[in-house]
Amino acid sequence: MKEFIYILVSAIIVQTPLFGQQAYPTLSVTKGEVVEIRAALGQGTLFDTSIEKVRAQVDQFVTTGLDVPVPKDLAGGYTHEQHKKNFLILQKAGLLFQITEEEKYAILVKETLFKYREMYPKLERHPSTKSYARGKLFWQCLNDANWLVYVSQAYDCIYDWLSVKERKELNKELFVPMANFLSVETPRFFNRLHNHSTWANAAVGMIGLVMENEDLVQKALYGLPISKEGLKDNDGGSITLKGQKEAGFLAQIDFSFSPDGYYTEGPYYQRYAMYPFLIFALALDNAKPDVKIFEYNNEVLIKGVYALLNQTNAKGEFFPLNDAQKGMSYFSRELKLALSLAFQYGSKDSSLLSLIELQKSVPLIYSGMQAALAIKAGKTVPFVKKSVMLRDGAKGDEGAIGILRADKEGEIDLIMKYAKHGMGHGHFDRLSYSMFYGEQEVLQDYGAARWVNINQKDGGGYLKENKTWAKQTVAHNTVVVDEKSQFRGKVKAADAIAPSSYIFDIDNPNLQVVSAKDTNCYEGVELHRTIVLLKDSSFENPLVLDLFAVNSEEEHDLLLPYYYKGQLMQTNVDFTQSSTLSTMGETDGFQHLWKEAEGKGAEGVTQINWFDKATFFTLTSTTTASDNIITAHIGANDPNFNLRHDPAFFIQKKGKKGRTLFASILETHGNYSRVSEFANNAAGSISNITIIDNTSEYTVVDFTNKQDEEWTFIISNKQHSDDSKHRLTIKNREIKWGGPFTLFKNELEQ
Amino acid sequence: MKEFIYILVSAIIVQTPLFGQQAYPTLSVTKGEVVEIRAALGQGTLFDTSIEKVRAQVDQFVTTGLDVPVPKDLAGGYTHEQHKKNFLILQKAGLLFQITEEEKYAILVKETLFKYREMYPKLERHPSTKSYARGKLFWQCLNDANWLVYVSQAYDCIYDWLSVKERKELNKELFVPMANFLSVETPRFFNRLHNHSTWANAAVGMIGLVMENEDLVQKALYGLPISKEGLKDNDGGSITLKGQKEAGFLAQIDFSFSPDGYYTEGPYYQRYAMYPFLIFALALDNAKPDVKIFEYNNEVLIKGVYALLNQTNAKGEFFPLNDAQKGMSYFSRELKLALSLAFQYGSKDSSLLSLIELQKSVPLIYSGMQAALAIKAGKTVPFVKKSVMLRDGAKGDEGAIGILRADKEGEIDLIMKYAKHGMGHGHFDRLSYSMFYGEQEVLQDYGAARWVNINQKDGGGYLKENKTWAKQTVAHNTVVVDEKSQFRGKVKAADAIAPSSYIFDIDNPNLQVVSAKDTNCYEGVELHRTIVLLKDSSFENPLVLDLFAVNSEEEHDLLLPYYYKGQLMQTNVDFTQSSTLSTMGETDGFQHLWKEAEGKGAEGVTQINWFDKATFFTLTSTTTASDNIITAHIGANDPNFNLRHDPAFFIQKKGKKGRTLFASILETHGNYSRVSEFANNAAGSISNITIIDNTSEYTVVDFTNKQDEEWTFIISNKQHSDDSKHRLTIKNREIKWGGPFTLFKNELEQ
Ligand SMILES: [Ca+2]
Ligand SMILES: [Ca+2]
Ligand SMILES: [Ca+2]
Ligand SMILES: [Mg+2]
Ligand SMILES: [Mg+2]
Ligand SMILES: [Mg+2]
Ligand SMILES: [Mg+2]
């Protein structure tokens, strides 16, 4: 043991650089931190097991080396995947060299870098012309920036192990050209306010820090001079934003995050963007601590990590808002970095340790070791997700995501979206809601029409159906007016103005309310949706009371979709099944829906009961016989089998003007085992819902269960202050209350 | 501790019966066994934790008692579910009384029995007229028999604790009338050879053993005199079988099980039937050991348990052959009894212990304690499922189920069905195959159209679509001739003759072959299917080579369905999607399929690549441009939403006469993570399949992968003996081999 320590110490001495003003490494881990990490090894922490996992990944390339092919393919193709593999392996090899001091890792990095150094000067832009900003190693600059963010860390780890000549050659022939390529040579890419540019800024800044090139660091932090062009990228979003005055990393932080840490493109892209935000922040904190980057904007980067964690279901999967591939979760590599950093640079919140334990590995950096030691010391406490509103907009005044949760952890997650559109990756989904029960989707948001990195699906990129289906309003659980998408499907108009938060009240865990309005997405139409998560001992699980009010002077056709999962079991609607299936329409996503059956709404309430996995669900909704109930499934006009054939039902109210209310209750109930074959509580409890009043002043609904218990919910449609006082006479009884809503139980016999 | 033992002993003494020739209990546990069980308590075995679980279930009724409502409802309704709950709880209460000696359990049994004693004499047959044999407590006698099988155990456990007067009253007013009702008063129910009657026989025999009523025991073992009627039940099966000469429990065993322990109705019903078979066998072994019931017919009851275990996937779920609800598994209560008994009365096979550990509880009987003690003693070894053929028919000469498995446990389960029809619960599915990869279905058998015990689905019974869809040939992965089901959908004709086993060869784990023929299900058509599970280092996972040969003198239209799961990714077929969807036909199940897209087969091979969960699959099949490829999904003509809307594709060869071969390879390959977003090996390896020859003598196919490696597979279509010798000239090369098939790799460049 003593001998081992001696060797360690002498190794450190030997490697101390003889010149250079900066001590290396300096980006993701510092020289001093490495000493501490080495000293803490071998205690059987999560850090130790993480090293072994990373070794297993990297060791397979130590002898063979890494192939550096001439770029040719799109995502999913060989050259793309190989260059991606290279940057991930190099970054790990660099850290392994620092921690283990085994030169084989440094050699792997060096040899691979010299392969790139050979090839890079000869490369033109990538042959594919799909991107507005074609890269050199990859089809888009974005992936080149990914490469540099990771590889700059590897380079940093071997920088003072290389000879001066080697460094100079790599700097001059590979890294400076690459940094210039990604910045001054591609300004439309570098200077946007967008996740692509965040990667670019981080890449250029990090390699600048390694090379001690202050010019690159300045460009990274503050951007290039702003051009006047109003260009569009190929996602439909603007290249520069209206009135954009600043660019660069700090402007990205200002612009991208709301004060609550919400990222306007939604959690799937926030997850992706958090890596460059946090790794460059870490590098800045190490190399330029005076920037105080983790304290910047009231610690918004750390808040961003919590915002992400709060946008996950019981499996840790991000809510699939906007363009998002379902299944991405806090088990991603980006979130592994994020959790360790949030632990170390936040408030040493030991509830984060429980999620790090679930992740089963830590990044091989100082904060990873600190988290691992804290876990070893038994400091872990559970991470409890709560109901939360995440405001959108740089000032927090442009709508929000409202998340209501039942008090049992993860039992029900209800997500209402009334945030900003989300730029090029946004969906026309205002006032939609989706819901999880435990680990299962109850009402789904479709997510994106894309198979990321699966080559046979159009190179892994966005599919045509992402625009024609996934983004459209009818693909979401929100009212569609006149079979058109919100804002007629125009991103620019949607980006210009957000819905308004009306109520978000979680003071009473048994009566949580989210309510929002939009008057912009359909001309001349006011939408006002209120969702109540109600716990009451009369019901097995919390109820979802949904009041979707539509108000317009002109007549409109209204359609409210429900993208349920599982098998429809029973309904009181007398459906007629179509003998041949036609699409529900020609445009705005309706062309992708096969209409299966239709029936008149029941007089009073329509009830639909379905089953999924082991649980029953019942929707009860006020209807009349002039309403139509439609069942359908996705998959029409899908020549390349790009869409999932998921089911839906719709409540349609045609030719409505004035005030119309969709009043519904969604019950989660019962269970069924395919092994015991016992079914419990398979039918819902709600027997009726009655709209008592729905004026510009108040909306009042009664609902009743099969035991003849009756409740009344009232919401003020004009005053949403907690301090407002209300008085209303209902059925000859005078009701007084404070605050914008109230719920009470009626004794039917008095 | 001494005091405790003293009390125990004195309790035993007090409870020793003062009269009666038989020592109680005597059915599921004997007096002597109870003493041993009590002595082994408290060692922290699985038996101890099982008692605590059962206590928790029963204790909630000790104070309240059990409701005994007047029968009224169908399955899923209150009275049905309550009587079912009652028999399950009473059986447990009886055993708890014996083991714990706490009188509260005996009191619960007694009080509930007297409630039944009050009600039963007043009952007419159940008001529902759905069953051919209406019960009194339930809508069908079957459930009444279930009740008596369980309750006779409870009664046995308290028999000598009751006063003579109480016993006499219960015997006379409840149990003798019930036994008579289920036998002499309902002979069509009692005397069938069918799982229903197995329950009846066991019920009458078990209550006969408790009451020492030898007349009932004789009826149970040997049946009532056979009547001449040729009646049908409401499943479509015959009430008595052609030439049926015997009835009763022993005849059930003779008739129901093949020498391999396969049960002709399939594993779902076998699981159900195993409970009365085994519990009555246990009772007979205890009360009439001279019958040597567990040795009867070469220990066929124990073989039946192994047959069941071998018909499960990696999750322990039974293959959904015939009428079967998916998800039923070896975690069912029937299999808990079965595994302990197979351990105790079989060969003390310690691999069964590993499954008992998974079940997490043992039955509260002697064999449950023996298994628990063996587990505690560390005797558990893994249960390894192997490839196996389970022959059907009382003599084992009426077809079989052929199960091929890859050598990694559970990696691939391939099930080919060439067994008997399976009576009223059979499907017209000859020569179909289904496949699992790990825990996922790759090619599915639909199972039954039924939601067992879910009231809103037609009282939990079989749905109309079970007959119009689930049983039909087109619902299975087998060739459909002229869009008609096998045997024109007639059960009687199908029951009369089984397919023929041709080859089942698993000598070489890298080249496993199952092959069977049928010349009866379509007039004038010979079907011969050969499935090869091939492991070769050139392929990531075992390949499935499928040669489906059809031979007929007349022209026929042939259609081969593939009920895949997941998302179609890519194909070389130029599909045209229908702009309105129509059904694929009018009858034989085709009326339930929506046709989505159609294209001409590719010249050479058609390839279809799909993705499910985390794995890719590719089917490569020989086609010409005169073939049609069709995609479809289930759900047409389904007014009550009874069907799952699962996808399928079809290979159609129209107007074929002479010898036609469907030659296909199914590859399982690659993986994709939605968290890392890495896709590996997403495209298949097979590039071509060529039919070299397909005569009455030999079928010869070549197949090639993308590395230009080539293999040839040859099967003799006439000689299936291992001793046969063959010589064939292919491409000017003479090939000689022994046995009915051979596979070799060609060097393309020689
Ligand atoms: Ca619950
Ligand atoms: Ca053999
Ligand atoms: Ca494998
Ligand atoms: Mg969406
Ligand atoms: Mg409040
Ligand atoms: Mg079937
Ligand atoms: Mg052989």
UniProtKB/TrEMBL annotation, chains A, B:
Residues 390-610 form the Heparinase II/III-like C-terminal domain. Pfam families: Alginate_lyase, Hepar_II_III_C. Signal peptide: none annotated. Keywords: Lyase, Periplasm, Signal. This is Heparinase II/III family protein. It comes from the Bacteria. It is found in: Periplasm. Residues 93-314 form the Alginate lyase domain.
